[in-house]
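Sample pair:
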Amino acid sequence: MSAINSPPAFKYICANDMRADNPLNIRLGQMWKSVEEESNGRLHVELMPWGSAGASKISLGKLLNNEIAFHPVSGMPLSTRIPIAAMEGLPFAFRDEAEAFRVLDGEFGNLLRKEISALGLFVFPLIWHQGFNQMSTSVGPIRHVDDLAGFKLRIAQVPYKMDLFKALGCDPQPIHYQGVLDGLKSGQATGQETPYLYTEMDGFADVQTHLSVTNHRFAAFWMCAHPDSWNALPADIQAIVQRNMTQYAMLFREDMLRENIAAGKRLEKRLAFNTTDVATFVEKLRDDGFYKRWRSEFGEKAWSLLENQRGPLG
């Protein structure tokens, strides 16, 4: 490999919603450094973590306008542009991470990638997973669905999630992710739902007293690029990016599997843990018509494909 001794031919931005010390930003930094070295300095990508390109819906708009070249985007903000992207986070769609990886890396995931691409994005093959969401609160444990009645749960500013948590009986509080801690401190919200690592790393455990193990929703990022920026890259640089995307997506999965387990063990020493009777969640959603409503919204093709790969849902 020759030394990097000239300015890069391509200077791009990669934004993300996580803190600089989050495994996502760390792996992205390592990945883009590797890409720069392997391309002999022809592609340089600047990282913009923790919403520095704007809250998720704003940064998604910048990606769609090619102000940002690369962005790992959650299915939730994507669903504000194309509702079917919310299927990533269907409640209780996946029993464990292995099943989620199998389904979202496979034919069903390919369908979602095709739909997301229709927005005008290039979508890379593998998801970058965050983990299963749990519920933390400052008002007591969530033992069963009745404990969600009037619960001021912070949610993303997404219609799908508003409908989901209203169906469960919550009083959802839309707050952008970087504002969650302030929302919990002020009492605007009395709880939140994220994987163990985020509950710890982003300071939510500092202002919460209970953590209810619900595993109610799987969360992932879809690595996207603006096609104009992507297509401007020579084929050999594209191949370098593709290869590193695959490598680092897999490394990030290992990171998050390991770090969520470790964070959960640390949180057990700080918060009162309980395991929620989530069968009551499913029953409530079924009685509300949530699954039937969103099956109609997402379409029979996608719903049937998901059920073919994981069994009946709801």
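DSSP finds 13 helices and nine strands in the chain.
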